[in-house]
Amino acid sequence: MTAEFVISLDFELLWGVRDHADRSAYGGNVLGAREAIPKILDLFALNGIRASWATVGFLFCETRDELIASLPPEDLRPRYANSKLSNYSYLSEVGKNETEDPYYFAPSLIARIIETPGQEIATHTFSHFYALEHGASANAFSADLEAARAVAKRRGIVLRSIVFPRNQYSAEHMEICRAAGITAWRGNPHSWAYRATQGREQTIVRRGLRLIDAYSGVLGAHTYSPQIGDFRNVPASRFLRPNAGKLAPLHPAHVNTILRGMTHAARFGLGYHLWWHPHNFGINGADNMTALEQIISHFRRLNDENGMISRAMGDMV
Q1: Sign of CA dihedral 189, 192, 194, 199
Q2: 317, part of any domain
Q3: What are phi and psi of 120, to 5 degrees?
Q4: Positive or negative, the Cα torsion across 289, 291, 296, 297?
Q5: What does the pLDDT read at residue 197?
């Protein structure tokens, strides 16, 4: 099997962090993401990189009126035990449109992604749906996915791939996605530390082990055997952590861990799946772009020497 390098980005702006941050706390990262996305797309286009942009459905809407009109019926919205998790709780703070409120709307950025060769618009659910949290029923998930498909269809986009928010999913959610025409999804690495769980089960031990693994690769390369089929699991290999904060001095070690994993995949005909959020590049943008350029340059070498190819999640179905 030909080695593959897959990139997916969880495109969510403020919807992805609203349960624990607002404009004042995280707005700089969100606005910085808007600046980073065109640069990332230009880098991808220059190097022939295919990627999947898993987009929260709310972001498609041109106006607040369209957003409200696109919502599932109230009885089919999630009723999380922790109400802070529901993005429906924050609709009252949403502005009129993207110009007035760049934190919650992104139709111009979605158009920019579509215009860039090799880019796939995937779904990150409609409302950033937390599939395993208490109060998130299968019926609500199905309605959420249908709303995401509908808002994308109005833009001429057929959603074929999904990334689950906070990487929460189960076999039941897989069946719902398959019935809705989804053909690829991003699974988790096999290690216990990365298992799909509710937020309250993300213990200090799990988080700590993932942090150590990010900078050392102690849990392995997290490569996978590429699949061909009508419902393809494209497991995550590594989250590209931002070059920021107290751990910034260790970022070269993190990037080297990624490069080693990519090399292992290329040599043995395996897959390597890198992912991150655009808002991770929202601060220290130049440093983060430099790291991404290093990774893309390494891919180019692996393509020349080992035949590794770039794929989006929806490819090879």
Answers
A1: positive
A2: no
A3: -105, 130
A4: positive
A5: 77
pLDDT tier for residue 201 given thresholds of 50, 70 and 90:
low
Q: Measure the CA dihedral 188/191/193/199, to 10°.
A: 30
CA-to-CA distance for 13 and 199, rounded, in angstroms? 20
Query: What is the extent of the structural domain holding 291?
Result: 4-311
pLDDT over 90 at 194, yes or no: no
Are 107 and 98 in contact by the 8 Å Cβ rule? The answer is: yes
Domain at 65, CATH number:
3.20.20.370
User: Does residue 73 sit within a domain?
Assistant: yes
Q: Which residues of 182-220 are buried (b: 16+ CB within 10 A; e: fewer)?
A: bbbbbbbbeeebbebebeeeeeeebeebbeebbbebebe
- Identify which of 311, 317, 56 has the alpha carbon closest to the alpha carbon of residue 162: 56
Containing 123, the helix (H) or strand (E) segment is strand 119-123
Phi, psi of 7 (to 5 degrees): -125, 135
In a domain, 164, yes or no: yes
Instruction: Quote the number of domains for the chain.
Output: 1
| Residue 316 forms part of a structural domain | no
pLDDT in tens, 206-252: 888 889 999 999 999 999 999 877 899 999 999 999 999 899 999 99
Return the sign of the alpha-carbon dihedral for residues 108, 122, 140, 12: negative
Placement of tokens 């922790």 in the chain: 82
Question: Is the model's pLDDT at 280 over the cut of 80?
Answer: yes
